[in-house]
Amino acid sequence: MNESFRADLHSHTTVSDGMLSPKALIDAAVEVGLSALSITDHDTVGAYTDETVGYAKEKGLQLVRGVEVSSFFFGESIHVLGYRIGEMKNFLERMRVRREGRNREILEKLDRLRRPISEEELGPLDKIGRPHIAMAMVAKGYVESLPAAFIHYLKEGAAAYCTGEIVETKEAIAAIQSEGGIAVLAHPHFIRKKRTIESLLELPFNGIECYYGSYPRKEEEKFITLAKERGLLITGGSDYHGHDNKHAQLGSSWVGKDDYEALIRAKA
Ligand code: AMP
Ligand code: ZN
Ligand code: FE
Ligand code: FE
């Protein structure tokens, strides 16, 4: 086994709500000594241009085509990671329209709360996420910090929160797998109830994101056991978004060569 092989399978770029461009992220991945990386932007594969793919190749970094899809399972927000995915054209177009509508709804709610933000201040509503709205709220002096924007306005159940069109977790899995992609349950660490995880795993997931962000290994063992019991793939990643306070550093969570190769070889 090659112990120095590390694959960070969860990261974001400026194509969604990350702070680094795809190229800058690839540079950063090489810098921290990763052998493989997956860019898993929210609801988009826009980072995977020929230029980005070529750049990773040039730098000797293995790039796994990925995405992180937002879905709901009995009303709870659940993220699904897709790896080795196809174009997912129809599904991602639906997600684009969903995001645009959801963001517009959030802005309408903020307006009613006398915290107006114009579309011009944000850029195209189909290409932004809640972190961009949070940043605009800080810039306009509505809140003191990004976490405060989420706590008071944007997190699930807060004053300006909106779900947008509900896309079920099983639909997300089906969209990923219908083109041969691998569907992985993202960060189960966030799911409070053990029963929810068990119900979720009755869906045809191919894997579980066992290693995540900066969680201590001890808390992750239960997910590794669960994956092994069920014959599911074990994945992991930092969910790096850039240098913010919420997310971990690039390369802080990763899988070794064995788990990586199992992912690369797996059939959906
Ligand atoms: P969206 O996909 O537009 O719903 O935004 C989701 C993103 O918002 C997540 O991936 C995080 O980057 C960020 N986020 C969610 N909850 C929080 C929070 N409580 N504090 C800071 N950022 C958050
Ligand atoms: Zn994000
Ligand atoms: Fe996520
Ligand atoms: Fe993520």
Describe the 3D structure:
The protein is an alpha/beta fold. Helix content is about 40%, strand content about 15%. It contains ten helices and seven strands. A seven-stranded mixed beta sheet has the order 1-2-3-4-5-6-7. Strand 6, helix 9 (about 215-230) and strand 7 (about 235) form a beta-alpha-beta unit. Helix 5 packs across helix 6 (about 145-155). The protein starts with 6 loop residues before the first strand and ends with a helix. The model has no long low-confidence stretch (mean pLDDT about 95). The chain binds adenosine monophosphate (AMP), zinc ion (ZN) and fe (iii) ion (2 copies). One fe (iii) ion (FE) binds near residues 68 and 186. One fe (iii) ion (FE) binds near residues 10, 12, 68 and 239.
Q: Can you summarize this structure?
A:
The chain is 39% helix and 15% strand.
